[in-house]
Every structure is written in C-alpha cells, then in structure tokens.
Amino acid sequence: MQELWTAVDGWLTETVVRPGAEWIAAEAESAAAGLPPIQVTAAQGKLLHLLARLAGARRVLEIGTLGGYSTLWLASALPEDGSVVTLELDPHHAEVARGNLARAGLAARVDVRVGRALALLPQLVEEGAGPFDLVFIDADKAEYPGYLHGSLALSRPGTLLIGDNVVRNGAVLEAGSADPRVVGARSFHAQVGADPRLSATVIQTVGSKGYDGLTVALVVGDGAR
Ligand code: SAH
Ligand code: DHB
Ligand code: MG
C-alpha cells in the first residue's frame, strides 16, 4: 500500500495542501544539510497550521524542531505578534531551522532553544513562559510521557496538545514491546486517556511517511495542577 499512499499524498499535496516555495526550500535545505527526512508531511503540517488557526493560537510550543519544517506551518498560522518557542537537542538541526525560518521571513516570531526538552520545559515554567495555546510534541518518542507532564504545566484550559508518531505502523498495540519509542507511545496514551484534564482522540494517518498517527488532546481542566 505504501506506493499508493505516497502517490495519493503527492497528489493531495499539489492539489489541496499547496505548500509555498518556502516550505519546498526548507525541505531541500534540510536534506542538503544532512538532516534525516523525518519532518511531518505537508498534509500533516497543514493540519497543524489549520488547528493553530482554529484555536486562535498566539503562543505555540514545539518540542522537537529538526529543520523547522513543522515550525514553518505553525509559525505561519499565528498573528503578526504571535510566537513559537521550539526545543531542539541538536545544535546543527537548530541552526538549519533558523536558516529556514529566516528565509521564510518568520525568524522574528520563533525562539529556537537548544537543549534536552526535559530540561528546557521546567525552565520555561520557571520563566513564566506559559501558558501556551498549542503544544506540538515531536522529539524523543521515549520521553513523550515526560513531555506531556511538562506541557500540562505550561497549559491552560483550552490549550491544544498534539503528539506526532503515536501509532508507529501499528506497533503501539504491542504491550510487550522492547522498543522504547513504542513503550513511550503506549504510556503517553495511557496517561492522556486517564487524565481528567484532557479530552482526546487519535487521528490515524497514512501517506508518504507510512502508517502513523497524531494524538489531539484538548486541556479541559486546569493545566497547572
Ligand atoms: N517537528 C519536526 C520533526 C522533529 S524530528 C518536523 O516535523 O518538521 C525530532 C527532533 O527532536 C530531532 O531534530 C531531534 O534532534 C530532536 N530531539 C531528539 N531528542 C530530543 C530531546 N531529548 N530534546 C529535544 N529535542 C530532541
Ligand atoms: C522520527 C521522528 C519523527 O518525529 C518522525 O516524524 C519520524 C521519525 C525518528 O526519530 O525516527
Ligand atoms: Mg514526527
């Protein structure tokens, strides 16, 4: 099925999603700089963009920047005075992202912070950087439960939390998995489902990146508790 998913994804991207030249350039620059091609697809990025607009988001937190491709989709959804804080472990990825964002004229509204997300999140809490209107979780899959905890501390009722790569070609069903990314996704979902502050669903996705999914969770209670 992968060939078909990729072909349909390509056609839908050209016909409906229609990413701008900056998006195409960001993918090319990221590839040329040696970054792994693991960014969200254009169709998924556009979904992030539309959800941010629908939420009226002004402040966005992203965990896992890579070359800033998803960051472009999110930052371009914000009003002129909106801002994105995006967390990235790898300084080279962060540098490539800054270049891509600058080329798209969006650098002024994006703060790319380098470090381990689990260390940076409590710093943001301490700075009083929250609450964010939307959080996109997409860094180390094994750490998703910790990212959820940190994101909730930076949320308010109405904050939208989105997690990428949560279905993992169906491996999320494997209760005995030794893959820390699967363990992370399972534990993340158990926490999302059990947390009375959250109302959530998962969108299963197919496309050029295979079979995966996005968790969409709305904070309906006090995220600071
Ligand atoms: N959101 C991007 C893709 C992110 S890929 C997009 O869709 O365009 C995951 C990124 O998380 C990688 O760049 C990786 O270096 C980064 N990462 C991995 N572990 C991390 C950690 N502990 N803290 C912060 N970033 C991390
Ligand atoms: C990986 C990370 C991602 O965010 C993604 O969308 C796909 C793959 C990875 O670390 O392999
Ligand atoms: Mg991802």
Q: Would you mind describing this structure in some detail?
A:
The chain is α/β, with parallel strands linked by helices and 225 residues long. 43% of the residues lie in helices and 20% in strands. A 7-stranded mixed beta sheet has the order 3-2-1-4-5-7-6, with helices on both faces. Strand 1, helix 4 and strand 2 (83-88) form a beta-alpha-beta unit. Helix 2 (21-32) runs antiparallel to helix 5 (91-103), helix 3 (42-54) packs parallel to helix 4 (69-75) and helix 6 runs parallel beside helix 7 (144-152). It is globular, with a radius of gyration of 16 Å. The site of 3,4-dihydroxybenzoic acid has 5 residues, from loops.
The oligomeric status of these chains comes to single chain
Strand order of the largest sheet: 3-2-1-4-5-7-6
What portion of the residues fall into strands of 2 or more residues?
A: 15-25%
Q: Encode the helix/strand succession as letters.
A: HHHEHEHEHEHEHEE
User: Would you tell me the structural class of the helices and strands?
Assistant: alpha/beta
Distance between the termini: 44 Å
Whole-number mean pLDDT: 97
Helix content: 40-55%
The count of strands amounts to 7
Bound molecules: S-adenosyl-L-homocysteine, 3,4-dihydroxybenzoic acid, magnesium ion
Low-confidence runs? none
General shape: globular
Largest beta-sheet details: 7 strands, mixed
Spatial extent as radius of gyration = 16 Å
Counting H and I runs of at least 4 residues, what is the number of helices?
8
